[in-house]
Amino acid sequence: MVRHLFAPAAALLAGILPLATATQAADPLPAKAAKGDAQSQTTEAARLRLVAEGVEYLISKGQAEDGSFSGQTGAGVTSLCTTALLRSGRSPNDPAVAKSLAYLEKLVRPDGGIYPENSTNKNYETCLAVVCFKEANRNGKYDRVLANADKFLKGLQWDESEGQTPASVNYGGAGYGRKNRPDLSNTSFLMEALIAAGNGPEDEAVKKALVFVSRCQNLESEHNTSPFAAKINDGGFYYTVANGGESFANDGSEEGGSLRSYGSMTYAGLKSMIYAGLKPDDPRVKAATEWLRKHYDFSTNPGMKDAGLFYYLHTAAKTLHALGEDRFKDAKGVEHDWRADMVGQLAKLQNPNGSWTNKNNRWLEADANLVTGYALLSLSYCGPK
Asked: How far apart (Å, rounded) are the C-alpha atoms in residues 203 and 195?
């Protein structure tokens, strides 16, 4: 199972540009570069080539006969890869995509969830499937599936139905399944699924999820009075406030129960807050954004080195796209064209066969299907504005 993850491509461009051209895109665009200039065009051409090669890998080498991707891990990777193909320009009627959608359709359960039999990750798998079916929805084909899955996910959320009160540190969160303690990664997946299913910031489940997300931030405020809030107070996020708190960035040297912030969770937390309707002037958003300005980097997952790097990159791309800043200014005042930086980094990391993998296998990032899906999703948010 996968833990803690988790502009159409022009196929004619595939193979036209040499790898050196793609690698050049790693250099950030000049601060005053005009939209559509030569460097921007080079970056976009490189992006399209990376996408074309990644898509070709998934379809020709990654997909099983039954339509799944790494099906032995559950439904999550299949949903993620299928979403990546759809966001890379493939239609729901494309043979490979249609085969994957048919595989996922067989996993739709009477309770509204979307998961394999005996799954212990029903929330995680259903959330990713909802986003996939939303991306594939044409003429209302998946309207009922999405509505039923929405009810199912809301039933799993930690709230009054679980015997929780708003004062509980579990309140509003989501874990891998009903009995798993909630964490920020799964709650961010829940937030994406809720929005994909048509809920807005005014929805009660979205509001509840925001309560949990706010408590996973190292920021003391009226929204976070947990025991950890003021210990570091740097505005970043960690994995979970539940069960005594946990941060994968902690190395055992901490004293007093502090929980270190790290990159992937800070982007996940900020993205969730944006989806929940918080504005740039909200203190929580401002603090998280400032943390990310201090740790702007796509070569590592800040605080985690190479662990979970591709999960980090895809979460960063989604968040920066949602933030709406074409140029992201770091703490030193340097402006970065984050899309060009992201494309350049992924160009450096792509394997000769078109896939991506992480040498650090933590959270299954040695799985080429999973990581190629992450990379393609990252690239899908780097296209022309």
From this structure: 10
